[in-house]
Amino acid sequence: MWFVNFVHKAYFLPRRKQMRFRHMSVLTAATLVGALLAFRPAATEFGKITLPLGIVEVQSAGGTDWARAKVRQPVFSGDKVRTKPKSRAEITLNGGGKVRIAENSELELTEASVTPMKKDFNANLNKGKVWVAATAAFGEKKNVAVRTPTAVAAIRGTKYRANAGDKESQILVYEGKVDINTPENLAKMRREDLQKRQQQGGPPKFSLAPVQTIQAPTQVAGPFEVSLEEWITLVEGMQINLRADGKYHMFEFDKEADAQNPWVQWNSDQDSQK
Predict the structure, then answer these.
(1) 159 pLDDT exceeds 70?
(2) By residue range, what is the domain housing residue 180?
(3) Cis upstream peptide for 262 (omega within 30°)
(4) Together in a domain, 22 and 59
(5) Helix, strand or coil for residue 6?
C-alpha cells in the first residue's frame, strides 16, 4: 500500500521533479534486484585446497566455468575439483583430515556437515583416483564417504583409496575400517528407511549399519561370483573390486607390490609429514 501511495504522490510532482524521481526509482529498483540476486544461502565449507600441483581447477556450485585453483582456496559443498595430466591436489578437510586427488580426476564435493564432535563429508568421484586420510580425534565421530559410479565407500577408520571406473571401481583399505555398498542398494535402503519411519510417524533417519565384517587375510569366493546386497566392512589390508552389476571380488592385496605404486608412495610420504 505504501508503494501505491508513493507512486500516486510522484505522479503529481512538477515535471522536473518527476524526471528526478524516475531516475531515483530506477536506481532503487536496480539496487533491490541486485541485493536479492546476491542473497544466497551460505554453503558449508568442505575444506581448503592446500596443495595444488600442476593444473588444478575448481568449478563453483551451480556454475559452468572452471578457474585455476589457488593455495589455501576454500571449497564448498556443491563445488567440483578436477586435475589435468601430471597434476595432483590435496584438500584439507574442515576440522582436519586430507583428501588427495590424482591426475586426470574429478571430485564433486556434495555435502559437508561440521560440528565440534561430529563431521560428515560426502563426495562423488566422477572419474580418477582419490586418497582419503581422516583420523578422528578422541570422542569425535568422523565420516568421509566417497561415491564412485559403482561403489559407495564410507570411512570409519583412518585411511583408504578409491579408483573410479564406469564399469568397475576399486577400494583399498590401509588403516581402520571402511563400509562398502553399491549406490543402488544405498538408495534402496534410504527409501525403505524413509517409508518405515513415515509409517511410524517419526522423522527419517539413516545411518551406516555394516552387516558383514571380513577379517584379513580372507579370500572371498572367486571373482565376481556374488552380488553385494548389504553393507560389507573392509579392514586393513583388504581390497574390493565392485562392478556396475553389483558383483564383486574381495581379497587381501599385496602390500609390498602396492607400496611400489607411485601414487601410494606419494600419499604415504605426505601422510608421514603430519
Answers:
(1) yes
(2) 45-271
(3) no
(4) no
(5) helix
The three three-digit cell numbers of residue 4, written as one number: 501505491
Close Cβ partners of 254 (under 8 Å, ≥ 6 residues apart)? none
pLDDT tens, residue by residue, 57-98: 999 998 999 999 999 999 999 999 999 999 999 999 998 899
**Degrees to nearest 5, angle at CA 187 with 186 and 190:** 85
- Residue in 57, 58, 52, 44 with CA at minimum distance from that of residue 93: 44
| Alpha carbon 273 to chain centroid, angstroms | 24
My answer on whether 68 and 19 are in the same domain is no
32 and 82 in a common domain: no
Q: How does pLDDT run across 188-247, given as a tens digit for each residue?
A: 655 666 677 667 765 544 343 333 443 443 444 444 445 566 677 888 999 999 888 778
150: closest CA among 193, 181, 121?
181
Residue 129's domain is classified under what CATH number? 2.60.120.1440
Predicted structure pTM score = 0.72
Average pLDDT, the chain: 78
**Residue among 50, 111, 48 nearest 78 (CA):** 111
Total domains in the fold of the chain: 2
